[in-house]
Amino acid sequence: MKVQMLGTGSAFAKKYYNTNALFYTDSHTIMLDCGITAPLSLHQLGKSFNDIDALLISHIHADHIGGMEEFALQMSFIFRRKPVLYVMDSLVDQLWNSSLKGGLKQEMFNTLDDYFEVRLLSEDVSAKLMPGFHVRPIRTSHIPNKSSYSFLINETFFYSADMKFDPALLEALVQEGCTTIFHDCQFASPGMVHTTLDELMSLPSYVQERIMLMHYDDNKVDYEGQTGFMKFVEQHRLYSF
Ligand SMILES: O=c1ccn([C@@H]2O[C@H](COP(=O)(O)O)[C@@H](O)[C@H]2O)c(=O)[nH]1
Ligand SMILES: [Zn+2]
Ligand SMILES: [Zn+2]
């Protein structure tokens, strides 16, 4: 299994694009989140939306779903097929009614199902999305009263959505055999709706050693060499796990 980030930046980062990922199995490509910068990043990789076999969504913020309108329109009107969309049962209505409907509703296209082959996921229920790609969605805390989900992939790789610091979860995942953690990281404190670098630096070394930092601000250069045992994830680089 390989992962390649379409971007590694925070919601307002301009240098690093939105934190969205491509996962490659032997036979399929799964996109995890499709933010505003995803279409441009895919283009820069020489790829198109038609290369994506399934899209998985963590939560409803523009840096995670802002590219979905273009994805839906290109697939319908250029590639003429419905891509698979994995979305949490608690997010699906909001995704259409509060976010996508304004741009996508038109004659003959009235629902999310008119653009995507929608498959629902449930919290803490493991699902096989594609051969060799299993996820367990874990609800993690982000914006008050707004659902957001991180994902444990193939029982060994944890991908945080935007989440507040949850050391108990991270330590439990490591105890259960998680070897790699891609975690959002905000440099400035307090975190408010994200985990800060200071919070991650408070983790024991055996946890930090498994953590790669993403969703960071444009001033990343100021923090290079100051991240304890953790390294930064880099845009477009291929990582095997
Ligand atoms: O309660 C809050 C506090 C801050 N925000 C801001 O919005 C962005 C949302 O984008 P993310 O992708 O979740 O980062 C967040 O960074 C804060 O700057 C908020 O929405 N609600
Ligand atoms: Zn975000
Ligand atoms: Zn968010």
Automatic annotation (TrEMBL):
Coiled coil: none annotated. SUPFAM superfamilies: Metallo-hydrolase/oxidoreductase (SSF56281). It catalyses: 3',5'-cyclic CMP + H2O = CMP + H(+); 3',5'-cyclic UMP + H2O = UMP + H(+). InterPro entries: Metallo-B-lactamas (IPR001279), RibonucZ/Hydroxyglut_hydro (IPR036866). Residues 18-215 form the Metallo-beta-lactamase domain. GO terms for molecular function: hydrolase activity; metal ion binding. It holds the Pfam family Anti-Pycsar_Apyc1. Counteracts the endogenous Pycsar antiviral defense system. Phosphodiesterase that enables metal-dependent hydrolysis of host cyclic nucleotide Pycsar defense signals such as cCMP and cUMP. PANTHER family: HYDROLASE C777.06C-RELATED, HYDROLASE C777.06C-RELATED-RELATED. This is Metallo-beta-lactamase domain-containing protein.
